[in-house]
Amino acid sequence: xxxxxxxxxxxxxxxxxxxxxxxxxxxxxxxxxxxxxxxxxxxxxxxxxxxxxxxxxxxxxxxxxxxxxxxxxxxxxxxxxxxxxxxxxxxxxxxxxxxxxxxxxxxxxxxxxxxxxxxxxxxxxxxxxxxxxxxxxxxxxxxxxxxxxxxxxxxxxxxxxxxxxxxxxxxxxxxxxxxxxxxxxxxxxxxxxxxxxxxxxxxxxxxxxxxxx
Length: 213
Known about the structure:
It is a single chain. The protein has 213 residues and is mainly beta. 6% of the residues lie in helices and 57% in strands. The protein has one helix at residues 2-13, and strands at 45-61, 72-75, 80-92, 95-107, 118-133, 136-150, 157-171, 176-189, 198-212.
């Protein structure tokens, strides 16, 4: 009986089993990281740049007080155009709007039978309204233009009228833009002789490079 009690006592008070590796430590999870939302380009601000492209024009003489001089329309020769421009844009959401002034110098936009009679420059004041998708801006144009025409033996004349068109700009970087613009000008004047109006339709397609400030 004493041997049995001794055996039970040793079984109860014996050393507790040890777990391999010591106590178990539960590792805490790292806090979740929140990534910043992607930023989109803001087109607001001033810009300036250069353009180069091709021209297409029609020259129309209106009806004269002299019956032997009917109204006529002549297709002018296609030429080239180089321009400088500057403007300012505002942005609200995806809507982008602003104004731009451009001055263009034209070459070879005249008459095949009289090369010295030609359009030599144009000045355009344009309003711009478009929509942006991050680094791409698609816009429409509406404005007022002056088209200057020179002829041999006189100072020429300036036709004035509305202009409208479309364009697209791509931001190659935060400051550099590359674009394409098509502008149509419907200009006219009554200050020609002999007492007849002149209408000049001048279209230009230009590749443009700009710098944003």
